[in-house]
Amino acid sequence: RVRKMGIAMEEVVLKPAPGPPKYTPDQQKEEEGRTLLSRVDPSAEVLIVLDERGALLTSHELATLLQEMEDDGVRLATFAIGGAHGHSPEVRKKANKIISLSKMVMNHQIARLVLMEQIYRAYTIIRGVPYHK
Questions:
Q1: Of 25, 114, 123, 129, which one has the greatest count of Cβ atoms within 10 A?
Q2: Closest CA to 2 of 86, 79, 55, 57
Q3: Cα separation of the two ends of the chain
Q4: Rounded distance, CA 106 to CA 24, Å?
Q5: What is the pLDDT at residue 49?
Q6: Rounded to an integer, what is the distance from CA 117 to the centroid of its chain?
Q7: What is the pTM of this model?
């Protein structure tokens, strides 16, 4: 449905780093962070990290953020959902924006579903499509 609004989306799922005994949770976060950052081009895209400690946005505020990015000529945005142990400090440091879907922690499958719905909802707000209530 987002394509009908002129928005292209691609879901990329990165393989989690091995856990114990090979890696501690912190090492796992660092490895996953390196993998993520190797796929992000800071000169060409905006990195938006999802983290329960990030800024809580309403649907209208997310729509405003996406509209501002569009107005600024941003052509590519990466929304990064952390692994089982969250994001590494390096990923958080490199993020252009850190947002939260909720103060509660949720697994990545639920976070993906909520994020996709909120992006769709934001674009219905931006485009004036009757969906958001």
A1: 123
A2: 79
A3: 18
A4: 21
A5: 98
A6: 12
A7: 0.91
Name the residue among 109, 125, 124 with its Cα closest to residue 2.
124
CA atoms within 13 A on the CB side of 116: 14
User: 5 and 123 in contact (C-beta within 8 Å)?
Assistant: yes
The b-or-e profile of 100-126 (16+ CB within 10 A means b, else e) is: ebeeeeeeeeebbeebeebbbbbbbbb
Long-range CB pairs of 66-74 (<8 Å, 24+ gap) are 66/119, 66/122, 66/123, 66/126, 67/126, 70/126, 74/45, 74/46
What's the average pLDDT block by block, 10 residues per block, for the chain (133 residues)? 75 93 95 97 95 95 97 95 94 97 92 95 92 68
Tokens matching residue 78: 């990466």
